[in-house]
Every structure is written in C-alpha cells, then in structure tokens.
Amino acid sequence: MKETQRRSDVVIRFAGDSGDGMQLTGDRFTSATASFGNDLSTLPDFPAEIRAPAGTLPGVSAFQIHFADHDIMTPGDAPDVLVAMNPAALKANIDDLSANGTVIVNTDEFTKRAVQKVGYEANPLEDGSLEKFSVHEIPLTSLTVGALESFDVTKKEAERAKNMFALGLLSWLYSRPVDQTRDFLTEKFGRKPEILAANLAALEAGWSFGETTEAFEVQYEVGKAALPAGVYRNITGNLALSYGLVAAAQRTGLGMFLGTYPITPASDILHELSRHKRFGITTFQAEDEIAGIGAALGAAYGGSIGVTTTSGPGLALKSETLGLATALELPLLVIDVQRGGPSTGLPTKTEQSDLLQAMFGRNGEAPVPIVAPQSPGDCFYAAIEAIRIATQYRTPVLLLSDGYLANGAEPWRIPDVESLPDLTVSFTTEPNDTDAKGEPVFHPFLRDPETLARPWAIPGTPGLEHRIGGIEKADVTGAISYDPDNHDYMVRTRQAKVDGIAHTIEPLSVDDPSGEADVLVLGWGSTYGPIAAACRKIRDSGLQVAQAHLRHLNPFPANTGEVLRQYRRVIIPEMNLGQLALLIRGKYLIDARAFNQVRGLPFRSEELVEVIRSEMLGESTTRFESLTEESLA
Amino acid sequence: MTASEIPALDLVPKTDEVQKAKDFKSDQEVRWCPGCGDYAILAAVQSFLPSLGLRRENIVFVSGIGCSSRFPYYMDTYGLHSIHGRAPAIATGLSVSRPDLSVWVVTGDGDALSIGGNHLMHALRRNVNLKILLFNNRIYGLTKGQYSPTSEPGKITKSTPQGSVDHPFNPVSLALGAEASFVARTIDSDRRHLTEVLGAAAAHEGTALVEIYQNCNIFNDGAFEPLKDAGTKDSHLIRLQHGQPIRFGSEDERAVIRDNDGQIRTVDAETDGNVLVHDAHAEDPGVAFALSRLADTVSLDRTAIGIFRDVQRPSYDRLAREQLEQAGDPAGSTDLSDLIAGPDTWTVA
Ligand code: SF4
Fold it and tell me: I need a surface site. Which of A412, A578, B311, B334 has the fewest CB within 10 A?
C-alpha cells in the first residue's frame, strides 16, 4: 500500500498534440472529478487549426482542470502537474508550472529530431533545465503499445490509446473513479469492439502502472467539496446556454427559431439545439451571418422566439439587421460568444472586446439591452433573462458570452424547472384603439404605458393587418413619417424603453463581508471567477476589498452610480482595453481605473491580487495603462 | 383554380367571403413616380389575390430596399419592409416557422441581384415556400439612376459617364443555375400575362421566382419598349406555353428549333419540322437555360417570357416541418428536467 496524502486543491494541465486527444482526456478527468464531488473549474485551450502540424508549438492543445475540496472560482493560475505528451507540449507550458510542480513526460516522443523541431538546443530531459520540478519520465507510448500487444489493433491504433493510459495513471494518482470513463468509452466505441477493448485496457494499464511502479510513491486525495445541497452535474457554458434557451422557450410557450451560421466558438449551441426539435425548436443553418439573423427576425415577426448565435466577426455582419430589429421593435436574441479580435483574431481564445460593438455597433441611435453571464452555469440563467427582456420589452437583446465560458466547465446545481420565471407571452389579437369616428382600430405603435413595448400582433391575426419596416414610423399609427418632431420623439422613446428595463433588473449588489472596504473591483462577464478569487486572497491577507459584478451592461442597474460613488477607488479589470471602464467613466464621471489584458486567456487571480493590492496601498503601478489622463489627452 | 384546389396552399386558411381588389388596398398614399411601371404591377397583384381565396391576414409581403420594396405599404395584408437585399432571408424565417402563411417577397434588380444576391441564390436552392417578385427595371431608381447588375453593357448613367463596363446578369439564367424549381418572366404592362404567371407561381410549392420587366420612366424610360411597342413586340417576344411548339413573330414565322447537334436556336423562317415544344416540367433545366439565353441583351430581340421551369421538389419548409413532427413532443413535463440533468449527476446532501 502506498502512502496517501491529502491536498485541498490541485491544478492539472494535460498538454499534447492536437491529435493526441487531450481535450477528451481532460473532459473525462473532469467528469470523474465532478461526480466524485469536488468543486472544479476547467480551461480548455486549443488551436484554431483542426490538425495543426504535428509536434509543433502552434499545434499544442491543452486542458487545465482545477479541483478542490472547497468552492473555487477559477481554473487555477499555475498548474501543479503538467502532463506533456511531447516536447512541444513541454515547451509551450513549462513556464506556467508552479514552483516545485510535477511534470509527467512521455519520453517516447523526445527524440532528437522532435526536440530540435520545437527549438530546444539540448534535450530538456537531460540538460538539467527541469531540475526545480519533480519529473516523471515515462515512455507512455511504448508502455501503451506493450500493454495492447495481444489486442487485435494496429500499432497506430494502440499508440492512439496513450491518452487513456495517461488518464488511467492520473486517475490513480489523484484517486479518481474510472467507471464513468469506462461507460463513456463503451458508448463511444460500442460499434468497434477491438478499439473499445484496447482503450479500456490502456486505461487499466495506466492505473496499474501508477499503483505498481516505484516511480510514484504517493497517491493523493482531494476530498469532496461542501457545496450547497442539491443535485449537480458538470456543465460547459455553451451547453448551459443551449439548455437555457430550451427552458426559456418552454416558459414562453412559443416555438423557438435559431437562424445561424457556423462560427467558433459559438457553433456548439447550434449543434446542441439541433438535437432538441421535440421542444419545438427549429434550427436553420443559413448561408451567412446576415441571413442567420434575418431568418431569426422573420420568425420573430411570425411569433417565434427568434435567436441567432455568433462571435465577434459575425456580430459585425449582423449589425444592420440588429438595427432593423430595433426599429421594428420585435423580440430577438443575439448571442455573441466573444473571441479574440479584431477581424479573425484568435478564434479559439477568449476576450471581452465586443462590449462596445454590442453597445454601439449600429447606425443611428439603436439601443440594445446587453446581458452577460458570469460563469459557465450562469449561461443558463442569462439566456432566460435575455429572453425575458426581449419578449417583455419587444426588443432585440444581446447576450455576451465568451470563449472561456463557452468551453469552460464547472459543477452546476440543476434547477427545478418549475421554479424558473413564467415568461408567458400574449400576442395582441384585438384592436387596441379607436379612430376619429370611434371605430375600433389597431395601432401597431401604441405602446404599453409601463414598459413602452409596442404590441406584438402576428400575421394570421384577423383585423390587425399592418405594415412595419425600417423607415421611421409615426408614433401610435406606425405610418411612414419623416416628421422632425416625430423622429425626435421616437428616437427618445426607443431609448427610454431600453433605459426603463433598469426597473425590472436586480440592483447591483456588493460583496464586502466586512463592510469596511474603500476599494471596489467592478467586473462583468467571465472575469467574475478570477476577480472573486483575487478578492478572497486579499481578504485572507487581512485587507478589505469589495467586489461587484455587472450582469446587465445596458441598461446598468439603477443603483450603479450610487454604489460606485461609495468607494474611494473603483478598479475595472477587463479582457479588452477598457471598454466597460469607458462606459462607466462616461456615464457616472467616476475616475475608474482600468486594468486590461488581451492575452486570449482568463486573468490569473494572483496577478489581479497584485494589481488590486498595489492600488489599495496607493503604490504606483505601471499596470493601469489605458484611460489615464495622459492617454486621453 | 381556387385556393382550395392548390396543394401548395393546403395549410393556408381560406375564406368564404368574396374578396375584391380594393380589399387589398391599404390606406397609404402610393408614392411612386407618376407613370412608373410599379403601379401596373400593384394593380395586377391586388386584382389577382382575390382569386386565391386566402384569408387576407394570412398573406404577408416582405420587401427589401428600393422603389419596388415600398410595395408592402400599399397592400392591406401583413407587410414587412426590411433592409437592402435581405428580404429572402427574413421571409425564409417567417415561412419556415409559419406554414399557414402565404409569403411573398417583392424585390428589385439591385436588391435581389446585387446586395442580396447571396440570399436569393440560397432561397432558390433550398426551395423555401416563397413567391419572389423581382421587378427588373435595369437601373437603380431610389438612389437616382446608377446602372444596375441587369443594365446593358455600356450603360451611361450618373456613375458611369463613359458607359458601364459591367457584364449584366440574366435573372432567369441565374435562377435556373441556382436550382430554382419555378422560374418565370413577365412584363408590367401585360396584365393578362402577368396575372397568369402570378397564378402559376402561387400554385407552386417552393420558391417561385417571377422576373417582371418594369419600366422606370424617370431613369430608364423605354427600357423594354421593343417588347411593348405594337410594331416590334410580336417579332421580339417569344411567349412560352407549356406543351406548345415555340413559334413567334407577327405571322408566327419565327420558331425555336433544336439543331441536329442538339443546339437550341431560333430560325426566322421555319425550314424543317423540328420546332421545339416547350416543356416547363423537364427535370433537366438545360433547355430552359438555353431559352433564357436567346435574348439579345441590348435589342431585346428573341426575349422569352412565360414559365421557363416549373418542377416539383419538396419545399424546405415541408422537409423541415417533417423533421420537427418526427421529433414528436416532449414526453411530459419531466422531459425538460431530464434533458438539463443529463446522464451524470450527483447529489450533495
Ligand atoms: S424612380 Fe423609377 S422605379 Fe422608382 S418610382 Fe420612379 S419611375 Fe418608378
């Protein structure tokens, strides 16, 4: 029996070639970890190319998981363990490893040529450069092939199972159950019994290798986390978002129509929804981004919940139709899973740089409400909230997710669907006004006095035949109008309608356990986890800091200005060059400090700790680069 | 044929009330230039629709941008005046999600073939249940007279003072190349022909593209004069009739023949017996395409009008609806809970 040590949390990064199956390995490890009962957070990080050239740095695909016996907020700053399947994976990731970290390398891949290919002058396993780490040199490929000798598979197929060997080893090392992975493999390879047998055997061999070999003296345990009571599952942001859409459609009682065009990292939502037609969901893969939103808008006109999904470049293409939806005042949901920009940018990496595009990226005064989820699981609720706003206020709504939320996973407490808000929609079916002669008439722009929403009267409703369009409409009647005063009134009214949404959203709440903080960290979207983790660390060190996180970016919660003014200093970390900071400064005249990074990766909480702390202690720092007076001058 | 006999309109509710053209006139003042060909088309459509016997509220006109795209405002049906080029996309979402509607798209040569070319092409390929009326006046009217993608080469306009160097589209050829299942051409001033073509389009399941030659008397007056002038029209126009030999000319002296080498061409005096018999239902669009190529772009001699192609292919709408129906309904209220829970859950007490 080997020694067992407890750890409160561990960060593991699996890294290999795009073809090595690292995402699958990470995913399986995650699933086992979730069902074991740890809290966890993951960060897949893969290249945009489907199969980048083998053995090269750009071809490295990695998957990081942070799991713990307590609640955690981020996928972890620095891995404790790096599994490197080849020299490229080692080189691309070794600098991130924590001091005294553990490296498990697949020595089979460290040939002279492979080592040189990625620019190592000497074999890093031999030149002492890994001395500060605890290195396990394991011939993963040949061990796997050896273990599968008696199986009816080719050498290539045997080699391909090395990720399961690695998974088996890591599962042993961290005492993870493997039953689920067995079930998963059985399902995946059910029709290819030889491949299934080989993968199961490789998984087994990896586990036994850990158990029997002397290379590993210690096995680790990470206890279950004390999460709030409930039934949990593991979920990624894109999946949660898809389920949120299905649930929201059900709560409205209407059919849903997704018109969309494939784009990374949003396509998974299309894939998922296309499987759920029985919930009344039609998916339409359009010829382009414009047709995607166009068809969704057409369906919304017909009385469906119209949805379109995209990423930054696609949002740019959708702008004109989004403006039309604003003018038509029809419900529509546009989901932008943000990625690195501009242009094609970094398709598989995360960024928050579409906020201003979402806010202003249309001609004319075309306000669009914006909702942003803060964690993978929260994507579910954000989708429901976005559809509530769209249907209640008859307006297009933008939901800003991002690549990190989309692909990252966390344990998620499954909600009771009956407890979700009732979003029942009623269409207008009768005339809503009288004409000069006292006859009943339908006026498509006669608004609800409270929400300022106009009636949603769908084709097929007798007696309410009317015309709408992108040309300015006269108030009440909806006839074409070029009247100056009418235009001024309509522009202001559409704005007032969107501003008025603030009445039905939660006020901005502040997390400040001591109530004594005078510095507030304000964020939005996926930075919630890293900011919360940083604030915790600061509090643990005896200092006080407050955190607030915006779920609604347009309009802001009604109390936002009041909250911000209570603090001596407001710090806004964003994965862009200061977009929320610009809005906050402009709207509230608050000298917010922006901390910005656009590395395609989520913030490391340690970094945020340093930045927030130096700001609290009034130390000068060069890190606040944007929006200083000099840069604005 | 009334609507109840048209399978393509099976799902659109009918009315027993007698409808008149004026029932389809909205209270909006029509704002096209006096003399514009659009008036004739509007009047023809308003007089034609009662023959379908559909409930007025189940008819929708969707348009893009341009002179023609003001059309929906003048129809007392549901209407959506959208943005430049996007009407087929918007109408696709509407049509697919609402099989109980008769959806018409009104567009122009700039709207459909320039800025919206992609959507037109894909609507045709998919065979969405849309009736697309393409008003072709071979000019940009609303932006005051620039050449369009159907203008003849060398067109002198404000934007091409030395004459355009663009080669034009032939909308019928384009539609046939884009897998259209119904393609027709007609002329604004020929009410009878226009009405006939509209009837056939309405009866067609899937996308029907109807190109309507339309006179813009302000910026391109007389563009189709050779096809309208009493002195030239009979010699220039080829009227296609399904099942009929294709003869034309004032004395029917001209004909479309198929050469021994298979080529489709016109002869001015019939020499032998192999006059082509028009088959709009031919699976292969090759002959229809050849017919669309006979016209001279500039003189308009040998311009064919009528229904080039009318073949049966299930509409996108129908196929998508079948998938939806096959998927069935959620199995009780627990289905959503089961879906979001997935197979791997654990309980924290
Ligand atoms: S500009 Fe030409 S097409 Fe436009 S309304 Fe006037 S005549 Fe008709």
Answer: B334
